[in-house]
Amino acid sequence: MLFNSYEFIFAFLPITFFIYFYLNSKRLTIASKGFLVFASLFFYSWWNIAYLPLILISMLFNYTIGNSLSKNDGENRKGLKKTFSNKSILVFGIVCNVALLAYYKYADFFIENFNLVTSSNVNFLHLVLPLAISFFTFQQIAYLVDSYRGETKEYDFLNYALFVTFFPQLIAGPIVHHKEMMPQFASSWNMVKNYKNIALGLFIFSIGLFKKVVIADTFAVWATAGFDTATTLNLFEAWATSLSYTFQLYFDFSGYTDMAIGIALMFNIKLPINFNSPYKATNIQDFWRRWHITLSRFLRDYIYIPLGGNKISSFRTYSNLLATFVIGGLWHGAGWTFVFWGFLHGMALIIHRIWSNLGFKMNTILAWFITFNFVNVAWMFFRAKEWDDAIKVLKGMVGLSGVVLAEKYNTIFSFLNNYGIIFDKVTGNIGDGSKSLIWIGFGIFFILFFKNSTEKSKEFAINNKSLFLTLIYFLSSILSLNQVSEFLYFNF
């Protein structure tokens, strides 16, 4: 079930909302939590009920490991003998989680590379990637590490199941911590309907729905045509393709996050901010403080810092940065293009750190321009199904596949024919003529000069203006729901 579908918007969400708060109004707290877990698992199973046993087994396993860590910690304080050390239990838990993720997500990738290196012919497993496995695995690894550190104690499986499965953030994040979620569900104030939260939630949800349905899905047409259909791309087609994907990914994922935050608010739950206008960043470190913030937090706290962070030597710091982002790239997908994308960002962060340590500074506009274009170029490897797809777009972006100008300029600039410039349809290979270029101009203006949903939520007030904007966003999105499309991060 998708957030941007009729069955979710007009059936699942309102039914779940009213039953949850009805049970709470009768002071049936355990029943309300149980119902919310059931509804979340139903939501998860909508795509394929075969996914359900996997997430249930994963939850039960990690709940048991987390409780073992808490029990061992208590025995340690009492001076009792322990069968296994907490570190051994933690390592076992993490290894099992990573092994599960590796089996489903990377088995065929490993087989492919094994066959390539050894000239073998091992058959592929052709496993279907379970929905959200990357997100709920990382979230539960964070829970185990927090339990090991004594920051989390959970003795109630129902509470733990709610923490993992809460449907607004289950499929594609944000990646949340137990300590920032469960106190909210335990608060008696959050068990009654809060009409300001409902209004604000609907407002943010409508913004996210508009981002996905009206903006991201429009850019998707040109990005798909450029990457997957066109055999060659001229200069303008290549730039239109790359920028279309850059904006598609942003509006798709930030749209999902807005919808998740908005839905959770209707249930009086505040999810962490996951986006903060990342395309306004003026350096790559600033970008990662703004883009997919909860993933950046996870990579920092559970990979970069345990590797040593920046506490040892400059060389180790740079090695840790690179390793962290290569792992982050691999987390996104089982392919060398994802690894290379992570490598590019790791190298960019190393260069930025060296630049900053040397005390160099740069003009703000130039810094933004370089950062944005680096991110845009790196996304080509993130999007490409094969290396050749990324190379095709990059060749076009530097003019190696030709330059095409509009036919109407032929009479004025005909002398350019001598330099290999052709006068024809500028973006004929990706469709819609110059419409894509107009939308890209709109996209740049939107990301630079519009307030993001977090900033808008701080100014929110229940009045006619907010009602009008909510209706505009919502109705224009509903009228555009001609073809329901998945969110891009569902693939990761």
UniProtKB/TrEMBL annotation:
<feature type="transmembrane region" description="Helical">
    <location>
        <begin position="35"/>
        <end position="64"/>
    </location>
</feature>
<feature type="transmembrane region" description="Helical">
    <location>
        <begin position="198"/>
        <end position="225"/>
    </location>
</feature>
<dbReference type="InterPro" id="IPR004299">
    <property type="entry name" value="MBOAT_fam"/>
</dbReference>
<feature type="transmembrane region" description="Helical">
    <location>
        <begin position="84"/>
        <end position="104"/>
    </location>
</feature>
<feature type="transmembrane region" description="Helical">
    <location>
        <begin position="364"/>
        <end position="382"/>
    </location>
</feature>
<feature type="transmembrane region" description="Helical">
    <location>
        <begin position="6"/>
        <end position="23"/>
    </location>
</feature>
<dbReference type="GO" id="GO:0042121">
    <property type="term" value="P:alginic acid biosynthetic process"/>
</dbReference>
<feature type="transmembrane region" description="Helical">
    <location>
        <begin position="157"/>
        <end position="177"/>
    </location>
</feature>
<feature type="transmembrane region" description="Helical">
    <location>
        <begin position="124"/>
        <end position="145"/>
    </location>
</feature>
<dbReference type="InterPro" id="IPR051085">
    <property type="entry name" value="MB_O-acyltransferase"/>
</dbReference>
<dbReference type="GO" id="GO:0005886">
    <property type="term" value="C:plasma membrane"/>
</dbReference>
<keyword id="KW-0472">Membrane</keyword>
<keyword id="KW-1133">Transmembrane helix</keyword>
<keyword id="KW-1003">Cell membrane</keyword>
<dbReference type="Pfam" id="PF03062">
    <property type="entry name" value="MBOAT"/>
</dbReference>
<comment type="similarity">
    <text>Belongs to the membrane-bound acyltransferase family.</text>
</comment>
<feature type="transmembrane region" description="Helical">
    <location>
        <begin position="394"/>
        <end position="416"/>
    </location>
</feature>
<protein>
    <submittedName>
        <fullName>Membrane-bound O-acyl transferase, MBOAT family</fullName>
    </submittedName>
</protein>
<feature type="transmembrane region" description="Helical">
    <location>
        <begin position="245"/>
        <end position="267"/>
    </location>
</feature>
<keyword id="KW-0012">Acyltransferase</keyword>
<keyword id="KW-0812">Transmembrane</keyword>
<dbReference type="InterPro" id="IPR024194">
    <property type="entry name" value="Ac/AlaTfrase_AlgI/DltB"/>
</dbReference>
<keyword id="KW-0808">Transferase</keyword>
<feature type="transmembrane region" description="Helical">
    <location>
        <begin position="436"/>
        <end position="454"/>
    </location>
</feature>
<dbReference type="InterPro" id="IPR028362">
    <property type="entry name" value="AlgI"/>
</dbReference>
<dbReference type="GO" id="GO:0016746">
    <property type="term" value="F:acyltransferase activity"/>
</dbReference>
<feature type="transmembrane region" description="Helical">
    <location>
        <begin position="466"/>
        <end position="484"/>
    </location>
</feature>
<feature type="transmembrane region" description="Helical">
    <location>
        <begin position="321"/>
        <end position="344"/>
    </location>
</feature>
